[in-house]
Amino acid sequence: MNEPPRHHVLPKEFRTWFEKRGFTGEMDIDQFCVEMERAHHEAIHGGGNWKLGRQWPGEWNRMIMEALQEAEVAAGRMLTRNEVLDIVAYRRRER
Fold first, then answer.
1. Which of 29, 34, 38, 48 is the most buried (most CB within 10 A)?
2. At 15, which helix (H) or strand (E)?
3. In 3D, which of 25, 21, 33 has the Cα closest to residue 82?
């Protein structure tokens, strides 16, 4: 039986960005995933073309990275791991 896909809450293409903020080892970004139905997962990734999936308004990866980068600019420093998690949790509740 196939396992449902796991979607990264912390975008994989920004792994290095997250590692610099403490997401390593047991707290690496692979630990922050949600399971979803295969069809939904494929749809949000543009049906296999992830670039298409990034074009819709409110797309998660683009939205969360904009929010995190804006928070860093406002703070004038690199966010801590806990600050990143607080922002991500807040944004997930908003959805």
1. 29
2. helix 15-19
3. 21
User: What ranges do the domains of the chain cover?
Assistant: 6-94
Three-class SS string for 27-95?
HCHHHCEEECCHHHHHHHCHHHCHHHHCCCCCCHHHHHHHHHHHHHHHHCCCCCHHHHHHHHHHHHHHC
pTM of the entire structure? 0.77
Q: How far apart are CA 36 and CA 23, in angstroms?
A: 23
End-to-end CA distance of the chain: 30
The tens digit of pLDDT for each residue in 17-63 reads 999 999 999 999 999 988 776 665 566 655 555 565 556 666 888 89
Instruction: Give me 62's structure tokens.
Output: 């683009």
Task: Please tell me the distance from the alpha carbon of residue 37 to that of residue 75, in angstroms, as a whole number.
Answer: 37
